[in-house]
Amino acid sequence: MALTELERGVLIFDATWRGGPGTSNRTAVIRHRFGLSPNQYLAVLNDSCEDPEALRIAPSVVIRRRAARGIAVQRTPKSA
């Protein structure tokens, strides 16, 4: 299964978002950029993390989300 443009965008956004002061606007940014509620955003993010392509795009996000759900990450060997 190939990731959609939305799924890739959500993965990249989550990988590059920096928390800290002012993070309360994250919900507003998600709504503006993707047109999603926070619950919809998390559903897209979690579903995206099931695709092997996601591990190549945003490995830290995939590992973090899968760990939060108690799912082990199996890395595929890199091609020579």
From TrEMBL:
Source organism superkingdom: Bacteria
The protein, known as: DUF3263 domain-containing protein
